[in-house]
Amino acid sequence: MSLEAGTRLGQYEILAPLGAGGMGEVYRARDTRLDREVAIKVLPRAVAGDSDALARFEREAKAVAALSHPNILAIHDFGRHEQTAYAVMELLDGTTLRDRIDQGAVPPRKAIELGRQIARGLGAAHEQGIVHRDLKPENVFVTRDGRVKLLDFGLARPLARKQGADATQSPTRTSLTSPGTVMGTAGYMSPEQVRGEPADARSDIFSFGVVLYELLSGQRPFRHETQVETMTAILNEDPPALDTSLEGLTPALESIVRRCLEKQPDERFHNATDLAFALQTVSGTLTSSGAGPRRVATAAAAAPRRSGGRWIALAAAVLAVLAGFEAGRRLGGGGAPATAA
Q1: CA-to-CA distance for 101 and 114, rounded, in angstroms?
Q2: The pLDDT value given to residue 71
Q3: Which residues are catalytic?
Q4: 316 Cβ neighbours under 8 A, 6+ residues apart
Q5: Which of 74, 101, 197, 303 could hold 90 in an S-S bridge, CB 3.0 to 4.6 Å?
Q6: Which of 57, 139, 64 is nearest to 97 (CA)?
C-alpha cells in the first residue's frame, strides 16, 4: 500500500515516501506532538493482520529500542492506526554502505573505521541477546558525519513465515518454530544459516567478514551466478586472497577478515567486542611510524599454515606481536598512542 502526503498515523503526519521493500514501506513523517521529523516504516499487511506476529514484532522493537546505542538505528515508537501497523525510527541523513561499495573499494583505513563501528553496534546488541541475522551493506547506513547505523536489527525475525522465491534480494526470513528454514540474504549468510541451523552472534560475525571483505576489495567473497552456487561456495570454498600489496591492507588485516569467515563458528572471533578490539589494534599499526608492524605481520603470514584453525593461529600470533610492539613503543615514549575504541 502507499500513503499520500498528509495522511495521519496517530500523531505522525506523512510527508513523503523514502523507499519500499519486502519488509514494508518507509516514509518521511512529522511527529506533530514533539514537532520533529522521523522515519516511519509501515509494516506489510500480512504482519498487521497476524496478532501473534505483530505482538512478537512489538517485543523485538522494544528490545532494540532499549539498546540506545550510537551505532544502532533508534526506534522511537510502535503503533497501529486502524489496519496499519507501523514503527517510528530516527530520520537519518546520509547513504547506505551499498552506495559506498558501488563506487569501488574503500581505503583500508576507512574500512577499518567503518568496521569498528559496525562491530561495536553488533557487540551492544549481542550482549542483550539480539542477533541481526541479515547483516549486509544495504542494512548499514553511514550518516554525513561518518557515523555508522545498523538498520533492521533483528526486527525482521518474527515477520516472515514462508520462504521467498528470491533469497538474494529478499530480507531475512525464518520460522520461529520450525528448524531447517533458510534465513538471510544469499552471499552474506553464514554456513549455519545456509544449512538452516539456528543463527547466533557468531553468524553475524561471519556476515560482518563478508561485508568487510567487500569494503576492502569492492567484491563479495562468495559471488556466483545462482543462489545455489553462492550458498555452496559459502559452505565449501575459501574466498580469494585480498591484495595485501595495497597500502594499509596488511596481512594482519586480512587475517582478521579470514577469521571472521571461518566455516566453523567456534573458529571465528568469540564475540564482536573482541573483533572491534582486533580492528583497533590493526588501526593503531597504520598510524605507527616505521615498518616494524608490517614486517612482523608479513613474517607471520608467511609461516606454514595448518588446516582447520590456521587463520585463528595466524590472527592470534599477529595481533599478540603487534600488541606487544605497541605496548613497547608506548613505554619507550615513541609516537602517539592509538585512539581508544
Answers
A1: 12
A2: 96
A3: 134
A4: none
A5: 74
A6: 139
